């Protein structure tokens, strides 16, 4: 076949489209596939409304059900057609976060706070608030898959009725295509307890009943790691039924009150948050963040390195996941900065100048909706 010869995909046998339609694991990919034409839409039925897994945790401070709502962070790039029609020569992409608890309606979220786009309605001029995003104008690249944690005391399963609580949950193993029924959910509660559960369990099981001072958990290079409030990183041995904790690093001995784990360029970092008050309290409002310090774990020598600059990288400390990005690749990102949730709003800390400010350009993304994406 000649390289310049076009292919009429609509001529493929219908049974192939049926097979292709069953292979999608991403809600966005499924919606984009169904939007091409009627025959593609007929070949892929929308599954029933997705219901997030529900557990009854023993480590929660309040009564109710713990709901795990899937969220995904995507790199959003203009499609080839959008690039051809655009007068902009920028190669930067946008960062978006999507609540994927429903196949029928996807909600855009703030990557730091998990606030819905509608939370920023007042930021837009009168009658200019975007009503939607045309998925065909963009190319989606999945960056991070996570779960937000909601405490639901009403038995309702729609996100707008949930009350988000602080804590971190990860699935293990987290390889692409792994069924949730085959995963364990590991959870660091805001009071420092570390537990795990599986779908169908009636309660959570504590991994370490002697230590209730864990701050964060992450999957790094296919292995589970947790950090406690003294900055000691341990890995969880999931090969045995006992789930033994093995110390991986020396204590950091940082004086901050909360440690955050971040993976960047293959290395493990800890962001130490200095605060007046308790960042782990149930409301998250009675504390003042006064400083952030960054440390890199030298895994070869087993020591901590004091990091003075992230260079062109940025760290994002989200409510349900932490990650690192190249500031040069995304609209609105400022290099050598740490983005985090503070009192329900996004805040930014410049590591070079040790100053805090509000990242008004980072989200919402006005250039995203001005790029022909609104419908």
What sort of overall outline do the alpha carbons produce when their principal axes are compared? globular
Regions with little confidence, pLDDT below 50 for 5+ residues:
56-63, 153-164
- Radius of gyration based on Cα positions: 22 Å
Question: Beta fraction of the residues?
Answer: 35-45%
Tell me the total number of β-strands.
23
Main beta-sheet annotation: 6 strands, antiparallel
- The residue fraction in helices comes out at under 10%
Distance between the terminal alpha carbons, to the nearest Å?
38 Å
Domain tally: 2
H and E string? HHHEEHEEEEEEEEEEEEEEEEEEEEEH
- Helix/strand class: mainly beta
Mean pLDDT equals 77
Query: What's the total helix number?
Result: 5
Protein architecture, described:
It contains 5 helices and 23 strands. By secondary structure, it is mainly β. The protein has 2 domains: 33 residues, no CATH class; 320 residues, no CATH class. Strands 1, 2, 3, 4, 5 and 6 form a 6-stranded antiparallel beta sheet that branches. A 5-stranded mixed beta sheet has the order 20-19-21-22-23, with no helix packed on it. The protein is globular and about 65 Å long.
